[in-house]
Amino acid sequence: MTMRWIAVLGLVLASGIVFAGEVTLDVVAGGLKGKATLVNKLLPNGSKYVRLGMVLEDEAKKSVSVLQESTYDTTGLPIRHLQVTNLQGGSAKQSVVVTFDTAGANIKVEQDGKAVNDVLAFPSGLKATATPEFWFIRDQVAAGGKTTYQRFDLGTRTWQETVCIFHGKRNLKWAGKTVSTNYVTIGTAKAWLDDVGDPYLIETPGGSMTRRAGK
N or C, fewer C-beta in 10 Å, the chain? Predict the structure, then answer.
């Protein structure tokens, strides 16, 4: 997988934003265009499951598909992350599986028939509970609500400090009409969400995701 593809996908995937329900989004990022499907739901035991499936093409119609899955316990601690990336024709495939326990993040990377294992400890003295995972889908937050936590980044395979802020209600022009949204920032990413946490629009420094009407 070329560094160009990896860099562009990082702009789309590294924001850490997740949502509730299921929506389809049009994606534009660094010369790539395509479609993404986001699924988020609470499980019967109170944990949360997230799935992102995406297919993007460059100007030469070369495509890449990405599947990400994550689960979190009822407090927002990560349980498992999965990312599988495929270039068109199977010319390059990479899978990253991360499971979390008291030792930290247990990482397994498979690429080109080789597997590499590593363990990355939880950041000492810092919070790794991703409480914004439950904003709107389960927990209500007042305007101005802010939390800072350590998020495991699949692209860099490091812990990243993440600041998430709910700025309150904002009107947004979307699909030819004005909708009332919940405006949230996650680091440098911006998201305009409905009242169950599904996105109308996501903007990152490198691109955007726009919800399709009727989804």
Answer: C
> 77 vs 38, 71, 114, CA distance in Å?
20, 9, 29
Total-model pTM: 0.85
Q: Could you identify the residue written with the tokens 């297919």? A: 55
CA-to-CA distance for 36 and 120, rounded, in angstroms? 30
User: What does 92-119 look like in DSSP terms, one character per residue?
Assistant: -EEEEEEEEETTEEEEEEEETTEEEEEE
| Number of CB atoms found within 10 A of residue 44's CB | 5
Q: State pLDDT tens for residues 127-143.
A: 999 999 999 989 999 99
Question: ∠ at Cα 147 (145, 152), nearest 5°?
Answer: 145
User: Which one, of 105, 107, 150, lies nearest residue 125 by Cα?
Assistant: 150
DSSP letters spanning 26-54: EEEETTEEEEEEEEEEE-TTS-EEEEEEE
Question: Which tens digit of pLDDT belongs to each residue from 163-186?
Answer: 999 999 999 999 999 999 999 999
